[in-house]
Write a structure and sequence with these properties.
With 386 residues, the protein is α/β, with parallel strands linked by helices. It has two domains: 6-168 and 367-383, Glycogen Phosphorylase B (Rossmann fold, 3-Layer(aba) Sandwich), CATH 3.40.50; 175-365, 3-Layer(aba) Sandwich (Rossmann fold), CATH 3.40.50.2000. 49% of the residues lie in helices and 15% in strands. The chain contains 18 helices and twelve strands. The strands form two sheets. A six-stranded parallel sheet has the order 2-1-3-4-5-6, sandwiched between helices. Helix 12 links the parallel strand 10 and strand 11 (289-293). Helix 1 (15-32) crosses helix 18 (372-383) and helix 3 runs parallel beside helix 4 (100-113). The longest helix has 25 residues, at 65-89. The protein is globular, with a radius of gyration of 22 Å.
């Protein structure tokens, strides 16, 4: 290693951020070669790209207010330790990746004690959806935001936030694995139609959604609507899904793993999904959908008091119009969901409106010839000290 090598600290505490961090590290290595050293916190993907994490990110895989409260002392200790490590390393840049409840606390500590370290935020907090005052506060400790959604630079500008560049969403690099071949398109168009069932990617989400999803499918079947239900999930959630399915009158075909999930997306005629990033994934796969969201009473009360966006559906926000129906909290019932699913499974104006909107999404999400990680690396290179 060269004595004048660049040091770049990265902090990611969830799997999605870990993947973003790893791609960015590889791009920076392409530009800097052996002249870069990585430090910080990350998971398996970032470890493979050359980072020795200061602690396992699994320590921070905590969901739910009660669970966070129990682990609060440990979380605060890790925030202090991470900030201390960054300051001691005196990096040429600090890149915090998503997980703002953790990473922004680290960034504020670093800025207060080592103000000359450039700080880049990869993935903007959802200031456009709730707590918009955070945008202006971020100017005090964030030098640049790397946005993964195309409307975020303008949103941050209007909210007086830090400079922001749209670098692209990582899902756009995976469109080939989401779109059907000719044979798969034939299956997508055949009868009975394949209905993707996506109740969530976390155990808490599955616990909130499995009962109402099962009731909805039972109502659809009782009404004589033809469909073949397919439920993609990941290995670590298989047991939670199996428990939830025990009470379902309609049993979907469960497929396990990322490859099986993508294969199911490519033949799906429609989807029934818990709202979240998966709605953008489905829109890129051009699968019309109905979305649902149910949370605990305390969480729902907090979100309702603070949310400011016109929709909670990510795909709606990217497209710029509310083409995807959303059924939240008390509206998340089988009586309301079943008719909407019937519409999206058949040739109706609602289904056609979604298809027309999804046909525009490639242009909306485009970043030109460069990949998201390449565009992100370009911004980081321009901010390095010295």
């Amino acid at each position: 290693m060269q004595s004048d090598a660049r040091t770049i600290c990265l902090i990611a505490t969830e799997e999605s951020g870990d993947r973003l961090g790893a791609s960015l590290m590889r791009e920076l290595r392409t530009r800097l070669g052996d002249g870069v050293r990585f430090d910080g916190v990350g998971g398996r993907a970032m470890a493979e790209a050359g980072l020795a994490s200061r602690f396992p990110i699994e320590e921070l895989s905590i969901v739910g207010l009660a669970a966070v409260a129990k682990q609060l002392r440990s979380i605060l200790r890790r925030i202090r330790e991470t900030a201390d490590a960054v300051i001691a390393a005196q990096p040429d840049a600090l890149i915090i990746i998503d997980s703002p409840d953790f990473t922004h606390r680290v960034a504020r500590r670093v800025r207060a004690r080592a103000p000359s370290i450039p700080i880049v935020d990869y993935v903007s907090p959802q200031v456009w959806a709730w707590r918009p005052g955070r945008a202006r506060t971020m100017r005090g400790y964030i030098d640049h935001v790397l946005a993964i959604l195309p409307f975020e630079p303008e949103a941050l500008r209007k909210l007086d936030g830090p400079p922001c560049t749209f670098v692209g969403h990582p899902l756009t690099a995976q469109i080939g694995s989401l779109r059907p071949s000719d044979i798969e398109q034939s299956r997508r168009d055949s009868s009975p139609p394949t209905l993707l069932v996506l109740p969530g990617s976390r155990r808490s989400e599955i616990a909130h959604h499995m009962a109402v999803f099962g009731e909805t499918l039972a109502q659809l079947q009782a009404q004589g609507v033809a469909f073949e239900a397919v439920l993609p999930t990941m290995p670590h959630l298989e047991s939670a899904i199996a428990r939830g399915l025990e009470s379902w009158p309609v049993r979907p075909r469960v497929v396990i793993g990322e490859d099986a999930k993508r294969a199911a997306f490519r033949v799906a005629h429609a989807a029934f999904a818990k709202s979240g990033t998966v709605t953008l994934e489905l829109a890129l796969a051009q699968v019309p959908m109905v979305t649902a969201y149910r949370a605990g009473a305390v969480e729902a009360w907090i979100v309702r008091r603070r949310i400011t966006s016109s929709s909670v559906i990510l795909a709606n926000l990217v497209i710029g119009e509310n083409v995807i129906p959303e059924f939240i909290q008390e509206d998340c019932t089988a009586a309301k969901l079943a008719p909407a699913l019937r519409d999206v499974l058949t040739e109706t104006p609602m289904r056609r409106r979604q298809q027309e909107a999804f046909a525009r999404i490639d242009d909306i999400m485009s970043t030109g010839a460069l990949s998201p990680s390449a565009r992100a690396a370009d911004v980081v290179m321009g901010l390095l000290r010295g």
